[in-house]
Each structure stands twice: as C-alpha cells, then as structure tokens.
Design a protein that fits this description.
Helix 2 links the parallel strand 1 and strand 2. By secondary structure, the protein is an alpha/beta fold. The chain starts with 5 loop residues before the first helix and ends with a strand. It has six helices and 13 strands. It has helices at residues 6-24, 37-45, 61-69, 107-116, 147-156, 186-194, and strands at 30-33, 55-58, 83-88, 92-93, 99-100, 117-125, 138-142, 160-163, 174-179, 199-202, 204-205, 212-216, 221-225. A six-stranded mixed beta sheet has the order 2-1-3-6-12-13, sandwiched between helices. Strands 8-9-7-10 form a four-stranded antiparallel beta sheet. Strands 4-5-11 form a three-stranded antiparallel beta sheet, covered by helices on one side. Bound molecules: ribulose-5-phosphate (5RP). Ribulose-5-phosphate binds at residues 34-38, 88-91, 101-107, 110. Ribulose-5-phosphate is lined by residues 34-38, 88-91, 101-107, 110.
C-alpha cells in the first residue's frame, strides 16, 4: 500500500472537502474559504465547482487572489448575509474540534468568516491532531501601539509571547505568538485573551470550533463530527 506524503495528504483532504461541498452546499449558495497551504489545495480543487457556487468569501488577501486566479467569484462579506459552509485548515485540533489557527496570520478574518458560516469544515492531516492544545504557539492579533502592554498581560497568563518579526496582518496589525501555554480550558482562555484591551482576536477557535473534521491519514480521509 502506498503511504501518502504530507503534501499528498493535503491534496486528499482537499478533494474530500470539494466532494463535501458539492454534496452539502445548495447550488447558488456562498462558500467561505480559509487560508494556508491546505486551503490552497482546496482552492485548486474547487475551480470545477465555480458554476455551482453563488460565490465565495475569502479569509485573506492571499486566498482572494488565488480564488480569482481560478476565475472563482469572490464577494465582500458585507454584501453577503449567509455563508453555508466555511472550509479551512488548522494548526492544531483537539478531540472536541477546538482549534488553534493563525499560523499564517489570517486568524481574525478567518474567525469573522467562520462566525457567519452555518457549518465549519476543518481540513487537515494527522500532524495537526492533538490531545491538548498549546504546543503550537497561540497567535494573537494586536493593535500596534498596544503590543508591549498586551505581551505583559499574556505573560501573566503563563505564556511567553514573541512578536512575529516583519509581519503585518491584512488588517494592518501585529501578531504575538504565545509559547508555552497548556490549554486545558480553550473556551475560557479564548474569552480571557479577547478581554485584554488592545487584542483584536486570538487564534483559539473554541467558542466556535469546527463542526466537521476531515482528517487525512497516510492511507485515508476520516470524517469526524462535533
Ligand atoms: C492561517 C491558518 C491556517 O489554517 C493554518 O495555519 C494551517 O495552515 P496549513 O494548512 O498551511 O498548515 O490558520 O491563518
């Protein structure tokens, strides 16, 4: 039996997500599209669905450009009332389908598009599956003038924040990557970090986790539901 490489796993899960969208998203409905290398594989797969889709909403400028490169219609979120399905990757996902996202720095727009969507479909390979979130540094988007203050506050929560060097988000803000957190209560921590003045959003997707996980293993794609 052929054992898939990590890139082949991303392609396999992207095809499974394309089939999920074709089966579950009504013709003419809007699809939300995530950001990252797995989401990029998904974008390349859905070019064949462009006449089925009413349009897409992109979670980053990079995703917008890739969608438009395939001739797929991209809509402004403010012109859309309803998103049927949102498909995106994750940096970590636990057994309750809570996630850490934002490795690519698109967490705030991802969280906004996910908030509007009926169904969040997470696509990833087994390397992202964890028992407890926090090994991957938690990204926190901050207003530039507040980054030192927010870093001190995050330090008080037990984390070690590091400013992501040379990186500015699509919203013109900065990212603090918080190392060393052992996150056994993701929903509470998500709210707590959002409550720090100067934080725009954080990469915990626990209050609104995934509804469906398509998980590529070296031999198949498993489906899990919340
Ligand atoms: C970007 C994200 C991505 O979903 C996450 O970083 C996973 O990316 P990849 O599929 O490249 O591993 O949250 O902000």
């Amino acid at each position: 039996m052929h054992t898939m490489t990590q890139y082949e796993m991303k392609q396999a899960v992207a095809r499974a997500a394309r089939d999920f969208v074709a089966a579950h998203l009504p013709a003419g409905a809007i699809l939300g599209v995530g950001t990252g290398s797995t989401a990029n594989c998904f974008i390349d797969e859905i070019a064949v669905l462009k006449n089925h889709l009413g349009g897409t909403v992109a979670s980053s400028e990079a995703t917008r450009q890739r969608l438009e490169g395939h001739g797929i219609r991209v809509l402004d979120l403010n012109d859309v009332e309803h998103i049927g399905i949102y498909v995106d990757g994750a940096d970590e996902i636990d057994g309750s389908l809570c996630m850490i996202k934002g490795g690519g720095g698109a967490l705030t727009r991802e969280k906004i598009v996910a908030a509007v969507a009926d169904t969040f479909v997470c696509i990833c390979d087994t390397s992202k599956r964890v028992a407890t979130l926090g090994h991957f540094p938690l990204p926190v988007e901050v207003i530039p003038m507040a980054h030192a203050y927010v870093a001190r506050q995050l330090g008080q929560l037990g984390g070690v924040p590091k400013l992501r060097e040379g990186f500015i988000t699509d919203n013109g803000n900065l990212i603090l990557d918080v190392h060393g957190l052992h996150i056994d209560q993701p929903t509470a921590l998500e709210s707590r970090i959002d409550g720090i003045t100067g934080v725009v959003s954080n990469g915990l997707f626990a209050r609104r986790g995934a509804d469906v996980l398509l998980l590529a293993t070296s031999s198949t794609v498993e489906v899990m539901k919340r």
